[in-house]
Automatic annotation (TrEMBL):
Taxon lineage: Bacteria, Bacillati, Actinomycetota, Actinomycetes, Kitasatosporales
Positions of transmembrane segments: none
Keyword field contains Transmembrane helix: no
Family matches, as PANTHER family: DJ-1 PROTEIN, DJ-1_THIJ_PFPI FAMILY PROTEIN
Presence of the UniProt keyword DNA damage in the record: no
GO molecular function, one term: transferase activity
Pfam families (UniProt xref): DJ-1_PfpI
Domain DJ-1/PfpI: 3-169
Family: Belongs to the peptidase C56 family.
Superkingdom of this protein's organism: Bacteria
Name this protein carries in UniProt: Type 1 glutamine amidotransferase
Keywords associated with the record: Glutamine amidotransferase, Transferase
Amino acid sequence: MPSAVIVTGPGFQDHDVVYTYYRLIEEGWHVDVATRNGADAVGKYGVPLPMDKTARPLVAFDRLDADAYDAVILTGGHEAPDRVRQDAHVLAFVRAMDAAGKVVAGLCHGPWIMVSAGVLKGRTACAYIGLRDDVINAGAEVVDSDVIVDGHIITCSYYAYVGRFMQQVFATVAARAGERTTERAAA
C-alpha cells in the first residue's frame, strides 16, 4: 500500500487538505497528516485537524521520516506554508524525500516549502501568482500551467486544479514504483 504525508499547519487551505486527504484514502493509501508538535490545527475556513473520528493521530514534524512515505503533499493556504517553511525538521524531510527520488508535491502556496528546502533549483514548475517570483528566485523555470511534473517534483498553481494534481501524484508514484521493480529485477 502506498503511503503519503500531508504537511500543513494552522490556517491551511481547507480545500487542499480535505480533497488530497480523502482522495488518498479513497485510493487505498496509508495517509498521515503532520503539524508542528502533532498539534491540532484549524483551516482558514474552519476545518479541524484531525478531520474526523477515524483519522489517525497527527504526526509531529520531528517524527517525519522519508523512509516511511512514497509522497509528501505540501498544501497551501498562505499562512500554513509560510509557518511550515520555517521548520528545520520539515525542510530536512523534504530534502530527504527529494534525495531519495520520492514524490514531493506542492499545491498552491505549498511550493513555498519547496523553495525554502532548496529542491526547485534547475526544475520546471508552475506557481501561484503570489509565489512566482519566489519560485523563479529559487532557480526554477516557471511556466504558466495548472500542474507540472518534473521527475518526482510536482507543482500545482491553484487549488482549483487539485483534481489534476492528485492524478499526477498517483501516476508519478506508480511510475516510480515500477522503476524500482524493474531495477530490482535487473539486479
